[in-house]
Amino acid sequence: MTTSDDTGFSTRQVHAGSATAPATPRATPIYLTAGFTFSDLDESAAHFGTGAGFGYSRTGNPTVHAVEERLASLEGGDQAVLVSSGQAAVTVALLALAGAGDHIVVSEHIYEGTRGLLLDNLARLGIDTTFVDVSDHDAVRSAITPRTKALFAETLSNARNDVLDVAAIAAIGAERGGIPLVVDSTFTTPYLLRPLEHGAAIVVHSASKFLAGQGAVLGGVIVDDGRFDAAASGHLFPHLVQTDRLGGASFAEKHGRRARGAYIRESVAPRFGPSPSPLNAFLIGQGIETLSLRVERQSQNALAVATWLEQRPEVERVDYVGLPSHPHHDLGERYLRRGSGSVFTVTLRGGLEAARHVVQSVRLITHMTHLGDVRSLVLHPQSTSHAARSVAERERAGVFPGTIRLSIGIEDIDDILADLDQALVGVPVAERETVVL
Ligand SMILES: *Cc1c(COP(=O)(O)O)cnc(C)c1O
User: Fold this and answer.
1) Residue 15 C-alpha to ligand 1 middle, in angstroms?
2) pLDDT tens, 59-76?
3) How would CATH label the architecture of 59-288?
4) How far apart are CA 191 and CA 186, in angstroms?
5) Is residue 143 pLDDT above 50, yes or no?
6) How far is 311 from 417, CA to CA, in rounded Å?
7) The CATH number, out of the four listed (3.90.1150.10, 1.10.1200.120, 3.90.1280.20, 3.90.1570.10), of the domain defined by the range 291-424
8) Closest residue by CA, ligand 1 atom 8
């Protein structure tokens, strides 16, 4: 569009200066645009027909796509779909597999938002859930029914820091006709663990946490392994193998082993619509560039903090899988060779009042609900993330009145320890806490 002086003011306010000279930026540019121009009719027709190129940012955007490619590569997956939050990633992944009348087997130790999604929102759509302790493999096996369309668990549980035996659970799904294992890998990131390499079918993350790292934006990602086997598990997923409801060939016919990933990308994510902002995608992409450095440092710091806390007289227990005292330490050594992450809980002998004292006394460490940040953070799970659970459920999850959750950052270790040291001043060194509310 030329914007010569003889066009009107209103025309020029939207068109003047819009033609930019081609340039080759080093950083991924932020394509903050709702859509993309077509050069001719054939190009627009091709886009609508086959999805070639970029048309509208809800279905594809170059900034978003760059981050998707990077995450697919880091996870060892086939394709990734970036969405607006971790909750959106879990929702999209599960809605790509299950519908009304279907069933999902889920770890009892999962993020509270996911638990609510399953118990309330997906239940209202007719998708049922059975919660099991996924470290009990027989319990997983016996929870599976002919309607089960997915197994779902987190790589490291909050709060007990249990390690998911990805290969064993994936194998149970495979035995039962190719039920895919969906893994929320937020706590471990692809730097520590790549579940697809151990047989999981789909990995999801809250990119708001370690992937972005700076704690500035929300995001989520779904990574599919590209190993959909229509012959083995097509009977479970008629929406992938039968004629497209909108007409035409099935996803399996069009995309082969990529059918499930294509369905996530072309059907579920753009229609339910949790599209990420290209600006947020850019910030997540920037964060990922330092992921290995941060997670390595955070894991080292967390191990040092956990080791230090375990020796303290105020402390009843530390649930950090990096410690030899943790019941899953050996499993952790097998799956988490580069470190054990930086999120764990510590239970103080002095109960609720001791926990209150610490979260209110820290100075360097921030009291907030978030994790995976470059800053160290603390939260009291009993009164926040786990407040809706029964006492028995909380105890099974390792949440007691004196439990605090730490997410250790990249600060200098001496400064983190000094802050905890001063926050523990005045905390009772009482004998074992009896569990009362
Ligand atoms: C934070 C979190 C989520 C939800 O992610 P949001 O980005 O906050 O929507 C899901 N799973 C786990 C394990 C999380 O920590």
Assistant:
1) 41
2) 999 999 999 999 999 999
3) 3-Layer(aba) Sandwich (3.40)
4) 11
5) yes
6) 13
7) 3.90.1150.10
8) 86
